[in-house]
Design a protein that fits this description.
By secondary structure, this protein is of the alpha/beta class. The protein contains 10 helices and 12 strands. The strands form 2 sheets. The chain has a 7-stranded parallel beta sheet, sandwiched between helices.
């Protein structure tokens, strides 16, 4: 039986999550909860035939049984309270905010193993795009410094994104250091007002002693890391990999593979694709547990 999931948050991230869950053979959308009864997200969920509520987290808590998975697509401050309320339950809480509360997950780096905590963090859109490259470079070379600059279109950067800019920077930097082992890191997020809207882009800048002599190896390492990401986010592309002396710049572009997002919203697509992959892996672990009557 598909795992029962709830989505909290009815902005663009929430709508895309509902769309991706709708396409999943192992997940079942059992509730979409927001706080604005007139939101497009609640209308979209209702149109697909899913239960929708404007009671927010209270609707999740009022459910007759805990959900197998809850996606939190609200904001960092709200997530801390949601975790406090959901922690006593057996639910896996997947955090789409940069709250830095839960266990960090990057699919190509953390793999398919079960998280050790029931609160998992998807870090940030820039974190999902950049950490696989940062990790790959640091695993092969003695990287001294990493700087990540991401650009998102203003039309897709919602209120929560703008409220969480400080948290975004801090959480992305923390992930870069944690997954690469490089202490000196920096993260920047640009919100572009360009018309037409700018496609999501992330540039990974690294100081790599000796990289110039091994430029071909650098490019091969980056290409291999990108190929792994494309297995769950097919719009992830390396558009340039420049090596000049000890400076390496990897330019990435992510387009969305979504029923509801514009193609330029790759920032939302990559983090949501990662989140749904985590949920599907959890659902797979629940199946044998359901047969034996023992939950993982």
């Amino acid at each position: 039986m598909p795992a029962a999931v709830a989505v909290i948050g009815t902005g663009a991230i929430g709508r895309d999550l509902v769309s991706k869950v709708h396409r999943s053979p192992v997940l079942r959308c059992a509730l979409v909860a927001g706080r604005n009864p007139d939101s497009a997200g609640l209308r979209y969920a209702a149109a697909l035939g899913y239960p929708a509520s404007a009671d927010g987290i209270q609707a999740v808590l009022a459910a007759p049984a805990p959900f197998d998975v809850v996606f939190d697509a609200t904001n960092a401050r709200a997530h801390a309270e949601h975790w406090r309320l959901l922690r006593p339950l057996e639910t896996l809480l997947i955090d789409l905010t940069p709250s830095r509360v839960g266990q960090m997950v990057v699919p190509t780096l953390t793999g398919t193993q079960a998280p050790t905590e029931r609160n998992v963090s998807l870090i940030s859109c820039g974190g999902q795009a950049s950490t696989p490259i940062a990790h790959a470079l640091a695993e092969r070379f003695p990287v001294r410094y990493i700087e990540v600059v991401s650009t998102v279109a203003s039309t897709i950067a919602g209120r929560a994104t703008r409220l969480n800019l400080d948290e975004y920077v801090a959480t992305t930097r923390h992930a870069l250091s944690a997954f690469s082992g490089v202490a000196d890191t920096k993260a920047i997020l640009n919100i572009s007002p360009a018309v037409p809207p700018a496609t999501f882009r992330t540039a990974v800048h690294a100081i790599v002693p000796g990289a110039g002599a091994e430029a071909a190896v650098v490019r091969a390492v980056v290409a291999e890391a990108a190929e792994r990401v494309r297995k769950f986010a097919p719009g992830y592309e390396v558009v340039a990999c420049d090596v000049s002396g000890e400076r390496v710049v990897v330019s990435l572009e992510v387009t969305a593979d979504s029923d509801v997002l514009p193609r330029y919203a790759g920032n939302l697509d990559i983090i949501n694709s990662a989140a749904v992959m985590v949920a599907e892996q959890h659902a797979a672990r629940l199946r044998p547990a359901a047969r034996t009557g023992v939950r993982p």
